[in-house]
Amino acid sequence: MSLHSRLQSLNVEAAAAAGSTQQHALSGTPDGRDDANDPLVELKTKIHKLVIQSVGPALFRSERQDGAASSRTELEHAVHDAVNQIIEDDATPLTRQERNGLIQEITDDILGYGPIDPFLRDDSVSEVMVNDHRTVYIERKGKITLTNARFVDEQHLERIIDKIVSQIGRRIDESSPMVDARLPDGSRVNAIIPPLAVRGSCLTIRKFKKDPLKMEDLIKFGTLSPKSAQFLELCVKGALNIVISGGTGSGKTTTLNVLSSAIPDDERIITVEDAAEVQLKQEHVITLESRPANIEGKGQISIRDLVRNTLRMRPDRIVVGECRGPETVDMLQAMNTGHDGSMTTIHANNPREALSRVETLVLTAGVELPLRAIREQAAGAIDLIVQVSRLVDGSRRITHITEVGKMEGDTITLQDIFIAKPDEEGAASGATSRLLGNLQMTGIKPGFLDKLAQNGVTIPISFFASDDDPRGTQGAFGSSMRRSA
Question: Per-domain residue ranges for the chain?
Answer without folding.
Answer: 1-111, 112-210, 215-483
